[in-house]
């Protein structure tokens, strides 16, 4: 990339390090023309298209704050929320898309949330799957019961 100081079209990498979560690489570069140094950071591009039409970078923090509301009063720890957001991001990235609909992000949260806490799952699903009647809750609860027969772990089947 161009040197931000003198616009020289080339630069040399003098240092390169990966962020703690492994998602970003930061590079120190030096311009061979003016010798000044600057930093660049590199992440695999993943953006979220909001209903307003604005697109913004995918953010685990936003996933967490959305899920946290549904988890109010539930025995769900911050660590579990962080892990859930990581799983959501990994699932979306592994699908290979560079941009995803905000609504689709919400739907991607459902499966890991179901495994975490069923009450929080129902609250969240009622918003993202647009439950508008008691029947919708009954259907969802019946499905959860069917997937978790003797109070065991729910089966890992995709959410329809
Ligand atoms: Zn320069």
UniProtKB/TrEMBL annotation:
The keyword Metal-binding applies. Residues 46-136 form the ATP-cone domain. Its cofactor is Zn(2+). It comes from Brachybacterium saurashtrense. This is Transcriptional repressor NrdR. The gene is nrdR. A zinc finger (unnamed) spans 3-34. GO terms for molecular function: ATP binding; DNA binding; zinc ion binding. One of its GO terms (biological process) is negative regulation of DNA-templated transcription.
């Amino acid at each position: 990339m161009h040197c931000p100081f003198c616009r020289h079209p080339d630069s040399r990498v003098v240092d390169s390090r990966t962020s703690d979560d492994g998602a970003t690489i930061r590079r120190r570069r030096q311009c061979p023309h003016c010798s000044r140094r600057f930093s660049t950071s590199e992440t695999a591009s993943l953006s979220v298209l909001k209903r307003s039409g604005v697109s913004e970078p995918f953010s685990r923090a936003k996933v967490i704050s959305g899920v946290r509301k549904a988890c109010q009063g539930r025995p769900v720890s911050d660590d579990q929320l962080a892990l859930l957001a990581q799983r959501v991001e990994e699932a979306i990235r592994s699908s290979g898309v560079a941009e995803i609909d905000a609504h689709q992000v919400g739907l991607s949260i459902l499966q890991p949330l179901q495994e975490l806490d069923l009450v929080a799952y129902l609250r969240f699903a009622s918003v993202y799957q647009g439950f508008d009647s008691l029947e919708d809750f009954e259907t969802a609860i019946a499905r959860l019961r069917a997937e978790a027969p003797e109070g065991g772990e729910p089966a890992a089947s995709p959410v329809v």
